[in-house]
Design brief:
12 strands; binds glutamic acid; 2 domains; alpha/beta; Glutamyl-tRNA Synthetase, domain 3; 11 helices; three-stranded parallel sheet
């Protein structure tokens, strides 16, 4: 059944992996969730390689991720885009924000910030030192965005209402680092708008980034996509699966069992026969039987 609350006619979703290592079960869940939600709504599904943080990018990882998606039978629409080749777009957006007077340079070190701030959602809340005392621009500096007194609220399709006060909860955040690299928050907002993404389905580890992204969307005059955040896969120690926690790469010899497991993790109810069939049958069944509302149901029980 197609969810009538979604604007189905123009659904465009995406999967946006950072190529810091091969696809693991955690990123597979985000890929499968975004893919099925898009396909179930007869939408497009784009793949974007988020290799903006070049020092963290692992050579060859993007190619490995794409080959794995292909081997799993996940076909993307349009050409894959690479953030590392789109810095001109981020620069334009930054100029626009600067033109509006929302951007200021900051030379504070991590240590200075840690010593003079209180803890926020994703680390220390920047105390606004350089906003109050403008610094000489000739020193290497990051560029920060002024947050204001607004409260940002949105309705997540899986989690429900979510509210944040960026100024109080995260503080003025960085758009371009002192080493010249544009940050995830800016790049993701520019790309989602430029690619006309209407629905974002991704891990709940990014939930607290969403209000910052909505704030940027407001300032840049972009439309606000619908969000759905998926439960995060953790290991036995309760840590999020990631390269840092040594998550194992998806084993293509075990493609079907892992796809079925990802589907179960997303609260769906795949029949055991799917394990005996072909990958194409798996996708056919799971697109037709996708229930986004079961994700939350399962999550609350977890
Ligand atoms: N590149 C991010 C990650 O791999 C995902 C960004 C997003 O989906 O907004 O964690
Ligand atoms: Zn500063």
């Amino acid at each position: 059944m197609i969810d009538s609350t979604l604007n189905v006619a123009q659904y465009c979703g995406r999967f946006a992996p950072s190529p810091t290592g091969p696809l693991h079960f955690g990123s597979l869940v985000a890929a499968v969730g975004s893919y099925l939600d898009a396909k179930h709504h007869r939408g497009k599904w784009l793949v974007r390689i988020e290799d903006i943080d070049t020092p963290r990018t692992l050579p060859g990882a993007a190619e490995t991720i794409l080959r794995t998606l292909e081997a799993l039978g996940m076909e993307w629409d349009e050409t894959v885009v690479y953030q590392s080749r789109r810095t001109h777009l981020y620069q334009e957006a930054l100029h626009e924000l600067a033109r509006q007077g929302f951007v200021y340079p900051c030379t504070c070190s991590r240590k200075e910030i840690a010593d003079s701030s209180i803890a926020g959602i994703g680390g220390p809340i920047y105390p606004g030192t350089c906003r109050r005392n403008p610094i000489a621009k000739d020193k290497a500096h990051a560029l920060r965005l002024c947050t204001n007194d607004e409260t940002i609220a949105f309705l997540d399709r899986a989690i429900g209402p979510y509210t944040q006060h960026p100024a109080r909860d995260v503080g003025d955040f960085v758009l371009r680092r002192a080493d010249g690299i544009y940050t995830y928050q800016l790049a993701v907002v520019v790309d989602d708008a430029e690619q006309r993404i209407t629905h974002i389905v991704r891990g709940a580890d990014l939930l607290d980034s969403t209000p910052r992204q909505i704030y940027l969307q407001h300032l840049l005059g972009y439309s606000i996509p619908q969000y759905m955040h998926l439960p995060v896969v953790t290991n036995a120690a309760g840590e999020k699966l990631s390269k840092q926690t040594n998550a194992a790469a998806i084993d293509l010899q075990q493609a079907l069992p892992q796809l079925v497991e990802a589907l179960r993790f997303l609260g769906q109810n795949p029949p055991p026969e799917l394990l005996q069939g072909k990958i194409a049958d798996f996708w056919l069944w799971s697109q037709q039987n996708w229930h986004a509302d079961w994700i939350a149901r399962d999550w609350i029980a977890r």
